[in-house]
Amino acid sequence: MTSTTVATVATNPTTTTTGGRMRNKSILVGALAFAMAFTGIGITASNANASGTVITIWHNLGTTQNATAVKGLTDAYTKLHPDVTFKLVDQPADNYFALLQAAAISKKGPDMALMWTGLFALQYKSYLQNLKGTVAASALANVGSLNWSSPNFDAANGPYVMPFDRQFYIGFYNKAAFTKAGVKAVPTTWTELYSACTKLKTAGYTPIVYGNGGQSLGALYYPWYDASYIAIGQGATGMKDLYTGTNQWNSAANVAAYKKYAALKTAGCTNSDVLTKTNNLDDFLGGKAAMIIDGTWDTQKFTDKMGKNVAAFVPPFSDKPIKGVVEFAGQGLSMTNYSKNKAAVAAFMAFMATPAAAKVVDAAGLISDVNGSVTSNAVNQQMLDFAAKGGYTRFPMLDNVLQGDVVDAGNKILPAILGGTTSVTGGLKQMAQVWNNLAPAKRGKTYN
Q: What is the DSSP-derived secondary structure letter of residue 393?
C-alpha cells in the first residue's frame, strides 16, 4: 500500500486512522486546528501528505466493525489510487451531529461524513450533497435501499447517503445457555419470553443483558432496537402510524405493550443496572448472559468468540409471533455540499458500489449493501434468511423514520421506563407531548 499516514485524529485512543491533506500549508493548519478544537487532540501539520488528494471523513463509530469497514474501504481505494488518501476523524458519539452542524456553518468540516439513513440524513440535508447527478447513475443503481435517504423516501428524488452495509436490529442468544436451562425453543411471544427468562435465571444466567456497550450512542442503552420490534408487533403500519400520530405514543396498545416491556426488569429478565451498565457485551461474550438485543455491527465479535454457539432471533415483543424483521441500510457516507474535493469523493462513492468494496465490508463481518453481494458470516446469513427465505416482512429502523425530536426524547424516556425510574403511563404521555409539539409539517403523511 502506498498511502501516506498522518497523526491519528480521534476521540477514542484505540482507533487508528490514516490519511493526509492536499491543501496548502496555511489552509491545512487551519483545518487541523479546527479538528483539534473539536477532538481535544493535538496534531501537527508536519505529518501531513503534501501532495495528492486527501479526503477527510468524520464518523462516530469508535472501534465497532463499521469503523473497520470504513477504514478497509478507504485503504482499498488508496491501494488502487495512490494519489488519493483519507483522514479519518473519530468524533464522540453523543454529540456527533451537533459537531457536523457546527462545522457546516463555517464550511470547515469534512469532505464526507458517516450518516445514518432515514430522517437522520434528511434533517441534515442542508449541508449534504444530493448524489443524483453527482455520483455515476450506474453506481447508484448497484446499491440497495437508496430510498431511505431520499426526500420523502423516494429514490427518484436522489439519495444523500451512499450506504455501505445492510444492518439488522436483532437479538442474539447463547445456545449452550438455552440448552443448560432447558429452553427448547427460541421464544416468539411475551409469554414464551417470560417463561424462558425464569428458566435461564434459575440456571444462573442473566436472561437478557442491557447496557450502552457495543454501538455506544450515549450514557444510556439505546432503546430503539427494542422499540422497533414493539412497533412491528402492533402490525405492518405500526411505524408509520407513530410518525403520523395515527397511533399516539400513549395509546392503549402502546401502554399495554410497554407495561410488558417494563416488566422484563421487574420480573428478573434483565440485569438490575440497565441504566448504568457499560460492559453488557462482555457479559454476553463471557457466558454470563443468555441473550442480548443488539445489531449486525457486533456479529463478528460474537461469532469470533462463541463460534457456532451464537445465533440470531427476532425479539419477541408481541402477544403473537412476529413475522417482521428490522433489515435496513442503516449507515453510509455522505458528501458535504461544501467539500472542495467533490469529484474525488464521487469517484470513491462509485467504488463503494463495486463487488470489490462488498468484499471489504464482508471481511469486516458486516453485510454489504451492494446488490447481489453475499455474506460469509453464518449468523449474518441467518438474519438475511428471515426475509429472503422465512417470509418475514422487512421493516426500517424505527428511530430512522421518526421525527428527530421524538427520537431524542425517546433516548431518555424509553430506557427510564425499562429502568423503572419513569412510569409507563407517565413516560409515554411525555412522548405523546413531544409529538404534539412538533410543527404541523412534521406530523403529516409526507416524511420530512
A: E
Give the Cα-Cα-Cα angle 228, 232, 234 (nearest 5 degrees).
Answer: 125
Residues of the chain with pLDDT > 90, as a percent, come to 77
Residues 230 and 418 sit within 8 Å (Cβ to Cβ)? no
Are residues 226 and 360 both part of a single domain?
A: no
* pLDDT at 166 exceeding the cut of 80: yes
Q: Could you give the count of Cα atoms lying within 13 Å of 399 in the half-sphere of its Cβ?
A: 18
Question: What is the rounded distance in angstroms from the CA atom of residue 265 to the CA atom of residue 284?
Answer: 17
> What local confidence, expressed as pLDDT, does residue 236 receive?
59
65: CATH: 3.40.190.10
Cell digits for 147? 430510498
Q: Which cell numbers hold the place of 310? A: 451464537
Of 128, 34, 83, nearest in space to 9 by CA:
34
Residues 59 and 172 both lie in one domain = no
Cβ distance 170 to 296 under 8 Å?
yes
pLDDT by residue (tens digit) across 245-275? 999 999 999 999 999 999 999 999 999 999 9
What does the block give as the cell for 82? 495512490
Same domain, 221 and 179: yes
Torsion 399-403-406-412 (CA) sign = positive
* Structural domain ending residue among the three candidates 375, 398, 431: 375
Rg of the chain (C-alpha set): 22
Residue 447 lies in a domain: no
Q: What domain range is 106 assigned to?
A: 9-165+329-375
Return the biggest CA–CA distance within the chain.
67
